Amino acid sequence: MRELISRFAGTDGTAGNQILTTGGRYALAVIVVLLALLGPVVAILEPFWLFILVQILVFALLALSLDFVFGYAGLLSFGHAAMFGAGGYAAALLIAEVTPNALVVLPLAMLTGVVVAAVIGWFAVRARGIYFAMLTLAFAQMFYVIAFADVPAMITGAETVTGGDNGIYGVQLFELFGVVDFTDRINYYFMALALVALSLVALVRLANSPFGRALQGIRENEERMAFIGYDVRRYKVVGFAISGGFAGLAGGLYVPFQSLAHPQLLHWTVSGELVVMLLLGGMGTLWGPMLGAAAVIVLEEMLAGVAAWEVILGGVFVVVVIFAPRGLAGIVVSLKEDPRNALSNAKQALLTYVKKVRGER
Amino acid sequence: MVDATTIVRATLLGLQLGMTLALVAAGLTLIFGMLDVINFAHGALYMLGAYFGVVAASELGSFWAALVVAPLLVAIVGGAIEILSLRPLYGRNPLYHILLTFGFAIMIEGIVVEVWGGQSYRIPVPEALSGTLSYGSLSYPVYWMFVLVVSTILIGGIWLAIAKSDLGILIRASAHDTEMVDALGVDVSKVFTGVVVFGAALAGVAGVLLGASRSVNPGMGFGVIIQAFVIVVIGGLGSFKGAVYGALLIGLMTAYGALIAPSLTDLFIFALMAVVLIAKPSGLFGATEAA
Fold first, then answer.
1. Strands (E), A253-299
2. Cα(A14)–Cα(A156) distance, integer angstroms
3. B216 pairs with which residues across the strands?
4. Which 3 state secondary structure label does DSSP give A213?
5. Given CB atoms, is A169 within the 8 Å cutoff of chain B?
6. Opening angle at CA B163, ends B159 and B165, nearest 5
7. How many A-B residue pairs are in contact by the CB < 8 A criterion?
8. Measured between CA atoms, how close is B285 to chain A, in angstroms?
9. CA angle at residue A80 from A74 to A82, to 5 degrees?
10. pLDDT tens digit string along B14-42?
């Protein structure tokens, strides 16, 4: 396992520690501004695409949260749907029972994600690597069954809590002290954009902080970190909980927008799709996975008319894993560093592949 | 209250389910033990087995022919995946194998929907195996008994082969120390391909067997892969013994759970997995620190 983590950690150059350079930060600021300008334009020209943009933002946030534990701390989480769904259900229940005020609902959705992640993490960090992945998967599936069979209602004797396999439908949209109306989709888009940008800033800072460095240290060499006095387990649980908070926030953003909290949010295929986004984008870069999320959602949307879109998505994914293990982010970086040899590098990669298939070493 | 007949029936059902799951889990655990690959596409191969079974049974007009042809076709698909995609990636971070096979799982499911559509199919049960066995108040379909017997024989045979035969020794040795076996002049990459082909065929057999007693639909692959993961994780990744015991445990739990609280069976299963992993992180029969 140690070997897996260390290889994963990028000693073979498969995952980087590029948190952002100054240039990268400017580029991101420009992208945020462009997205903010794009919103109103899309709202007028092609309102449907505003819907897609919000979806991209939600999944970008989710992919970001996963990259924080997966790409930085080396914790292979296959259960991020649990926090996503828990945040979503929390938002749905709060809006229905308490208040639709975004300033109340979103922080509490985030908190729900933190609590769920802390519980799962506390148990799961006992195991490592693939076993950790399986434990997170098992716990997430438990949450799925709990929502699907409406276990809270069974326990409390209430008629329904999670709505079982129907879910909670007709979830109202947010408001902000009666001042801002989020039923106007463009306002919702701006809110989502602002939250994703803030989350990115927060996570970049966190990844650069002593805490983030300790997490990376744990990823690189757990024994050494334990030996020099770090409480490795606690760092992992806290890191996982922080990541869960952002996943919960994503859920809290998603559910009112879809006006539906459904057990499907908690299903492990959501976690799986997230991992696809992460790898497609490039792990350990924070911005790569967001790019990956956008790519997957746009691809799904564009291929929705083609019956075989799953085949194409799966195929693209397989090709990326074989030929571009660092994902889209890796392609961008290597094109930037060495634009002239791109073609011959690609040719070389293909030749190496053929050689390996034939069993030569 | 539940009477004795119901319990016996549930036990038989649980054993039958457990043994068929063992066929799927055995392939998964053998592939992991040898190649260090968590094969996410294994459920998809099981599904392919069922669909190939549907086609073969209707084209060839015989369940028995389907039981032979479908696993062979699945084995070919498994072999192609190994040679074209897993092989070039050995030596790279094993994580990529998980992701790669996950991509294949998505792809195969997409292809199945594309070719056969979203509806359910069923492989017709042959004349000789239709009907019911009855003993007192207990009645049990002949076909389910057949499935139980066939899977038990297969699993028992594999167990013997791994423990006693030269090939079994070679497989265990290659899993234990790949480089050493390689240095001794064995082409380990052929052993690897062989294990994947064999594991795929087993999944294919399970697909055909269950395809005749349950429905064949595009969601069945992902359904079974999660169960199979739970089984191999409980048993200990890479342990054949663990996979068999784990499969029986899950099969019986599912059958008994259906008597008590059908909607919560999955919850019990995942809770069991969590308890086992917390108590013994490498599974019941796993090595102390699994790679």
1. 260-261
2. 49
3. B121
4. helix
5. no
6. 105
7. 149
8. 14
9. 145
10. 999 999 999 999 999 999 888 888 888 99
Query: Would you state the structure tokens that stand for residue B66, as one six-digit string?
Result: 């389907």
Q: Which chain B residues have a beta carbon less than 8 Å from that of A312?
A: 110
Q: Please, are residues A54 and A257 in contact by the beta-carbon 8 Å criterion? A: yes
Nearest to B88 among A76, A130, A322 (CB): A322
C-alpha torsion sign, points A11, A12, A14, A20 = positive
A156 Cβ contact list (under 8 Å, min separation 6) = none
Answer yes or no: do A131 and B100 touch at CB < 8 A. Answer: no
Rounded to the nearest angstrom, the gap between the alpha carbon of residue A94 and the centroid of all alpha carbons in its chain is 23
Who among B109, B233, B266 is closest to A131 (CB)? B233
Rounded to whole angstroms, what are the CA distances from A354 to A357, B89, B131, B214?
A: 5, 12, 53, 41
**Average of per-residue pLDDT values in chain B:** 87
- Cα distance between residue A294 and residue A353, in whole Å: 29
Identify any residues that bridge with A175 across adjacent strands, giving them in sequence order.
Answer: A101, A181
Instruction: Residue window 21-80, chain A: list those with CB within 8 Å of chain B.
Output: 76
Burial A1-18 (b: 16+ CB within 10 A, else e): beebbbbbbbeeebbbee
ipTM of this predicted structure: 0.83
Q: Among A146, A272, A313, whose Cβ lies nearest the Cβ of B267? A: A146
DSSP state of A11: I
Tens-place pLDDT, residues B123-146: 888 888 888 888 878 888 899 899
Give CA–CA dist B41/B50, Å, rounded: 14
Distance in angstroms (rounded) separating the CA atoms of residues A162 and A260: 11
Q: Where are the beta strands (DSSP E) in A58-123?
A: none
Q: Tokens in use for A55?
A: 């979806």
- Nearest partner of B286 among B8, B21, B20, B32, judged by Cα: B32
Q: Which DSSP category does A181 fall into?
A: E
CB A239 within 8 Å of CB A68:
yes
In terms of C-beta density within 10 A (0-12 exposed, 13-18 middle, 19 or more buried), how is residue A229 classed?
exposed
Confirm or reject contact between B68 and chain A (CB < 8 A): no
- Stated pTM of the model: 0.84
